[in-house]
Amino acid sequence: MEKHKVLTIDQKESKILHQSLEKVDFSEIPKKELKELAKKMRQIMKEAKGIGLSANQIGLDLRFFVAEVPDSQGRCKFYALANPEIIKRYEEKEVLEEGCLSVPGMVGVVERPSKVIISGFDTNGRKVKIKAWGLLARVFQHEIDHLDGILFIDRTKEAYKIPKND
Ligand SMILES: [Zn+2]
To answer: Which residues of the sequence carry a binding annotation for Fe cation (predicted)?
Structure first.
């Protein structure tokens, strides 16, 4: 894994944001390195005031993302997942406005299942299965899209600029 020295987030023009990424190979990447990456990505995400960040947003070709989303009690839960997959999409759909750290200043409404079950691996290489709904389900789907090279602007009918209040 190449090291990112500066805290920069790739913008939508970047090629790596439009390609499907390589699976994390736990026999090749030491768990320690993956944990360090998760920590670093969490820091970059927080500094950018985001709630999710995928590896290709910092230029890495890896199916890996981090997310930190408040639950219904307002507590923030941190997720770092490798090789995530949506294993079940519930029928009910929800239309919500999305933004993305790689598409700054823009938002757009996207229709997605309101509830999903995903599976993946934590930074210890243990298999996890998570049932998610609401904002968490939204973030998971947005991030897994990133790993397939899809941005929300590819899914929305219309992206528009966030009005600046000054
Ligand atoms: Zn994004």
So the answer is: 100, 142, 146
- 146 in a known ligand binding site: yes
How remote is the CA of residue 43 from the centroid of ligand 1, in Å?
A: 16
Q: Where are the domains of the chain?
A: 15-161
Å from CA of 141 to ligand 1 middle: 10
| 103-158 residue pLDDT tens | 999 999 999 999 999 999 999 999 999 999 999 999 999 999 999 999 999 999 88
Assigned CATH topology for domain 15-161: Peptide Deformylase (3.90.45)
76 marked among binding-site residues: no
Q: What residues have a C-beta under 5 A from ligand 1, the ion?
A: 100
> What is the model's pTM?
0.93
